Amino acid sequence: MQKISPKAVKVWRIREGIVAAVDLMIAVAALILSLFVWDWFPWWISLILFVIFLYIIVVHVWLLPMLKYKYFRFGVSEDEIRIHQGIFFKEKHAVPLFRVQNIDTTVGPLMKRYGLKGVTLKTSAERIHIPELESDEADNIRNEIRKLINENTRRTT
């Protein structure tokens, strides 16, 4: 079983940091509005928003990206793709290659900045995503899966 790129932790932390920054701006705006503009607006609402900000920073920015990276594994064999993931609730997926209908690679602005790509496998029933692989590795895995699918379809016909 293989791991995803260690750069994934940075990308996930930056994404969650953006969410935390937006929450902090909302909390500060609510505090300013409650103290200086709206007398009817309770000040403790901004306190609740600040607690949510602290939760996002501690859990979603610092803790979860490390744990997601630690507990995500994938493997490509001759006849199936296996994915093991989950921090508290473990999930194991095994997708037979003959069920795969489409293989896509995805890249967002942060992923592009760090040279990462994701691989998405679609079957008629589900969608499997392997996140944040090195760009070359993602292309190699996509090509390897296509090659294995072509070989398996030639064997069955």
Through-space gap between termini? 30 Å
How large is the count of helical segments? 4
Can you write the helix and strand succession as a string? HHEEEEHEEH
Q: Unreliable runs, pLDDT <50, ≥5 residues?
A: none
The largest sheet has its strands arranged as: 1-2-3
Strand count = 6
**Given the C-alpha coordinates, what overall shape results?**
elongated
Largest sheet: 3 strands, antiparallel
Proportion of residues in helical segments: 40-55%
- Over all CA atoms, what is the radius of gyration? 21 Å
- The class by helix and strand makeup works out as alpha+beta
What share of residues are in beta strands? 15-25%
Mean pLDDT: 88
